[in-house]
Design a protein that fits this description.
Length: 282
């Protein structure tokens, strides 16, 4: 058996296409969606993501501006910039590219962003709303994963869903989103006793760990939907996921590739959140 590929690039393309009409009508009404991206320092990976976000905004007709600050910027200066962006009506979304340098308290920065412009969905107000089921900006990666699962046609309700990883930006919100769709959810982490045993129960498995090849075919139930969030560089500098693709492909029913799976969906969801913010849908 060889798993079917879930084409994240194609799904992201459809999401972006569906935003075009809304962007055009908002722009015609003098309310062009606007995204401000803040980047601190010279992290090459962050630079790649920011360039990609800007390019895709341009392609869709979303206004975007970039604020590049030196590695040495103080927390106060960064807070002042966010304050200024919070005040500007033409900016509907503010994204601060993480990680930030160690001398800056990330949580302080996240909490400074106006929750109504928090298109990353990291502000505790949006996290709390997600938790209790109120409309909120959904964090982009877990929201993108949900779209990819939908693409398979597999219903989530009643299924065993295992999320590996419990970060605030991926694992935890992923668990909540799956629960919201009535999955029976287990969240694993570095202290989980027998990861293979838990993973083998999964009808739907989401790997968000940051360890190349951690999930192998022997850890899977045959036919499972496997979503690989991981982005790791192997010893040859190649981008690889958390899933050992060759062995998992033999057992899973569906699998996302890396690259071309979750990555493109994360950006598509960011653009969707920005448009929803401009349209005041959230
Ligand atoms: P974090 O490092 O914040 O979290 C990793 C999680 O994995 C932690 O909860 C950790 O457990 C758990 N973990 C570590 N080792 C093991 C193990 N051996 N067995 C089980 N669990 C383990 O990472 P992120 O959530 O930020 O990101 C995860 C991956 O997803 C990374 O590769 C990242 O690059 C990628 N990513 C991809 C995105 C995309 O758009 N495609 C977007 C965001 C992230 P514990 O809590 O106990 O330490």
């Amino acid at each position: 058996m060889s798993a079917a590929l879930i084409d994240g690039k194609a799904v992201a393309g459809r999401v972006k296409e569906s935003l075009k009409t809304q962007i055009a009508s908002l722009t015609a009404a003098n309310n062009q969606p606007g995204l401000a991206v803040v980047i601190v320092g010279n992290n090459p990976a962050s630079r790649v993501y920011v360039n990609s976000k800007k390019k895709q905004c341009g392609e869709l007709g979303i206004y975007s501006e970039e604020h590049t600050l030196p590695e040495t910027v103080s927390e106060t200066e960064l807070l002042q910039l966010i304050d200024a962006l919070n005040q500007r009506p033409q900016i509907h979304g503010i994204l601060v590219q993480l990680p930030l340098p160690r001398h800056i308290n990330e949580q302080q920065i996240i909490e400074k962003i106006d929750p109504a412009k928090d298109v990353d969905g990291f502000h505790p107000v949006n996290v709390g709303k997600l938790m209790v089921g109120l409309p909120a900006f959904l964090p982009c990666t877990p929201a993108g994963v949900m779209e990819l699962i939908k693409e398979t046609g597999v219903t989530i309700a009643g299924k065993e869903c295992v999320v590996v990883g419990r970060s605030n930006i991926v694992g935890k919100p992923q668990g909540i989103l799956l629960l919201r769709e009535h999955g029976t959810v287990t969240i694993c982490h570095s202290r989980t006793k027998d990861l293979g045993e838990v993973c083998r129960r999964a009808d739907i498995l989401v790997a968000a760990v940051g360890r190349a090849g951690l999930i192998t075919g022997a850890m899977l139930k045959p036919g499972a939907v496997v979503i690989d969030v991981g982005m790791n560089r192997n010893q040859h500098g190649k981008l690889v996921g958390d899933v050992d693709f060759p062995s998992v492909q033999q057992v899973a029913g569906w699998i996302t590739p890396v690259p071309g799976g979750v990555g493109p969906m994360t950006i598509a969801m960011l653009l969707q959140n920005t448009v929803q913010s401009a349209a005041q849908l959230i």
